[in-house]
Design goal:
Elements lengths: L14 E6 L5 H16 L6 E3 L9 E7 L6 H6 L12 E2 L11 E2 L7 H20 L6
Antiparallel strand pairs: 1-3, 2-3, 4-5
Length: 138
């Protein structure tokens, strides 16, 4: 297979890409990888770190770095990211997320595609203004 690496040097550093499973924490994956690599390599204190936490209810790319490559984590964290979401209109939960069961379902048949797109655009504008106050400046 072209481009496939046949040997790895986890102590000197490797960058590993994982599709994090639903309900796993980022630390769950780091711990599993660290334990697996210990069994394979025998290195007890192998550094393994992740380049950004994903919510346990999120799936997607989680970048793990081993050994000396953990010094590159900030580079990956600074990169632009893209998020995808599945939205269920009208459903509510006590926690405002999937941590709790739906407690009501409201009629949303009046919401057109135009109304939805406008609402999303306005929500992102508000969120971006809010986040500027809390995110470190570069």
């Amino acid at each position: 297979m072209p481009g496939f690496k046949k040997s790895y040097d986890f102590a000197n550093g490797e960058v590993l890409l994982f599709n994090k499973d639903l309900e796993w924490t980022s630390f769950d994956l780091v711990s599993r990888v660290r334990n697996t690599l210990y069994k394979i390599t025998g290195i007890k204190k192998l550094k393994v770190g992740h380049a950004g936490t994903l919510d346990p209810l999120a799936t997607g790319l989680l970048i793990l770095c081993t050994g000396k490559a953990t010094k590159q984590i900030e580079i990956y964290q600074a990169e632009e990211k893209e998020y995808f979401a599945t939205i269920k209109l009208g459903a509510t939960t006590p926690s405002f997320d999937l941590e709790t069961e739906e407690d009501s379902q409201n009629d949303c048949s009046f919401i057109t595609e135009e109304i939805f797109k406008t609402a999303v655009k306005n929500s992102w504008a508000i969120l971006n203004r809010f986040l500027r106050y809390f995110l470190p400046l570069k």
